[in-house]
Amino acid sequence: MDRTIKPRALKPLLDKHSVTLLDVRRKTDYDMDQVQIPGAQWRDPDKIADWSKTLNKHSAVVIYCVRGGSVSNATVDQLRQQGIDAAFIEGGIEAWKADGGTTLPN
Question: Which domains does the chain show, CATH number per domain?
Answer without folding.
Answer: 4-105 (3.40.250.10)
